[in-house]
Amino acid sequence: MTNEFVIMTHALSKSYDKNLAVRELDLSVKLNRITAFLGRNGAGKSTTIKMLLGMIRPTSGSGAVLGGDITDTAANRNVRRRVAYVPEDKPLYGYMTVEQIIRFAKSFYPDWRADVENKLLHEYDLPIERKVKTLSKGMRTKLALLLAFARRPDLLILDEPSEGLDPVGIEHLLRSLATRAADGVSIFFSSHQIAEVERVADHVCILEKGRLLLDQSFDELRQSYRRIDLVFDSAAPEHEFRFSGVQRIELHGHHLTVLVQSNAEAVVERARSLKALSVEVSPVALRDIFLETVQEDQRALV
C-alpha cells in the first residue's frame, strides 16, 4: 500500500455457506477524499466495511487500511486507533446517559476535541441527562456521529450515517463531513441516499451483488456521462447509434434518447450527419448513473 491510499483490497471475498456476499473486490480509496460507497440493500457494503475493520475475516483475498493488513490482529488493533467508525445500527451503551457515554469515550483519546463536542451537542440538541436507551433513532445517530467527529482520526468510516436523521440533521451531517475533509480526514461512507452523496462526494464506488461495478471520481462522472435527445423528421434511426460508449438507447417514434458514458461528441456528429432536426445534450444526475450501472449489470447477467 502506498501513502496515496487509505484503503486497498485485492480480490477480497466473503462467502456465507454458498452465498458469496463480496466477490473479488479490488478497491482503492485515496487519501484526503470523501469516497461514497453506493449500493442497494444487500449489495455487500456493510460486509466489506466489517472486513476492512477486522470485525469479520475474509474468505479469500487481501486488504489494507492505513497500511495495516486487515487480517493481522496486532496491525488491525493499531489501525482502529486511527479510524473512527460509525456502524449502520449505531450500537451504544443504553444504560448510560449521553453525558456519561461522551465522558467514557473521550477517556480513550487524549486528543479529544472538546470544541467539536460542545458545538455538536448544541447543533444536535442532544439531551445530556437522558439515557441512551430512551433516545430516538435519530438522536442515537447524532450521538454516534458526535463520538466519531470529536476524535482526531486519520480515517472516518461511516455505514449509512444519515439513517434516522431528519432533513436538518442530514444538513448538519453533510456540513460536518465537509469540515472533517477540509481538516485532512479521509472519509469512506456507505449510503443509498444518492442526493446526499452528490452534495459531498469526491469519488464514487458502486457495488452490486458483491462486485465493484464503478470506481470513478465524481468530476469524471460529471464530465463523461451525457444524455442526448434527438429529434428526426421521420422514424429515428436507432441502429445508427450503437457504438462504443453508448449505454442505452430509448426510441419514441421520431424522438431518440441516447445515454452515453463516453463518445458524446461522436453521437452528436452522427446525429447531425443524419440531419437531426434537434440535438440537445444534457448532464446526467448521479441517481441515473447509479440506476443505469446496476440495471446494465443485471441485463448482462441475463
What does this protein structure show overall?
The chain has 302 residues and is α/β, with parallel strands linked by helices. Helix content is 35%, strand content 29%. The chain has a six-stranded mixed beta sheet, sandwiched between helices. Strands 1, 2, 3, 5 and 6 form a five-stranded antiparallel beta sheet that branches. The chain has a four-stranded antiparallel beta sheet with strand order 13-14-12-15. β1 and β2 form a beta hairpin. α4 runs antiparallel to α5 and α5 packs parallel to α6. The longest helix is centred in the middle third of the chain and has 16 residues. The mean pLDDT is 91.
Summarize the model shown.
It is built from ten helices and 15 strands.
Shape: elongated
pLDDT averaged over residues: 91
Low-pLDDT ranges: none
User: Tally of extended strands?
Assistant: 15
- Multimerization state: single chain
Protein structure class: alpha/beta
**What about the largest sheet?**
6 strands, mixed
Tell me the fraction of residues in β-strands, as a range.
25-35%
| Structure annotation, total helices | 10
- Rg to the nearest angstrom? 23 Å
- Strand order, sheet with most strands: 7-8-9-4-10-11
Order of helices and strands: EEEEHEEHEHHHEHEHEEHEEEHEH
Proportion in helices: 25-40%
List its traits.
15 strands, 10 helices, 5-stranded antiparallel β-sheet, 6-stranded mixed β-sheet, 302 residues, alpha/beta
